[in-house]
Design brief:
two-stranded parallel sheet; 6% strand; Cytochrome Bc1 Complex, Chain D, domain 2; 4 strands
Length: 173
């Protein structure tokens, strides 16, 4: 329990610090109607590059690389949860351990999260499926309400994208 509280405090402090470093609305990336990878690259440059570096190499011991690994190329639902809610706790990526805290980016739009995850999943040597705004919306809706950051071990087990009911299903009875 104490470990969780410490990670929660670190996440709170880090998220507060990073919030002061985020660009204003006038500095937001262009439009989500752009090519998702191009739009995602702009979001990445504004929101992710400070920790994960321009080339996706990360910072040794603190922020993992985004180059091919199971966190990036694996389950899309897990990756969406990671960006929406943040994460703390030790993780291992490409044989190296990391202790940094990933702040929550739930304030980003579904378009922004989908674009940046598509960019990451198709850059830095990754070559895997895209993430859609609808998938982000489904994960967001299934995890609504107050939530602190994930612990790495718990997040690893949180997989899948919840199915959403078709829009007419409530009236189709």
């Amino acid at each position: 329990m104490a470990r969780f509280l410490i990670h929660g405090f670190v996440l709170f402090v880090t998220a507060g610090w990073l919030a002061g470093c985020t660009p204003s609305d006038s500095e937001r990336p262009a439009s989500p109607t752009d090519d998702p990878v191009v739009y995602g690259e702009r979001v990445y440059a504004l929101r992710c590059q400070t920790c994960h570096q321009a080339d996706g190499s990360g910072v040794r011991g603190a922020f993992p690389p985004l180059k091919p690994n199971n966190w990036v190329q694996g389950d899309r639902g897990r990756l969406i949860r990671l960006v929406l809610h943040g994460m703390g706790g030790e993780i291992e990526v490409r044989g190296e351990r990391y202790q940094g805290v990933m702040p929550a980016f739930g304030y980003l739009s579904n378009d922004e999260i989908a674009a940046v995850l598509t960019y990451v999943r198709q850059s830095f040597g990754n070559d895997t499926t895209s993430v859609s705004p609808e998938q982000v919306a489904a994960v967001r809706a299934a995890n609504e309400g107050p939530r602190g950051g994930w612990l790495a071990d718990d997040l690893w087990d949180a997989t899948g994208i919840p199915e959403t009911a078709p829009p007419d299903s409530a009236t189709a009875r």
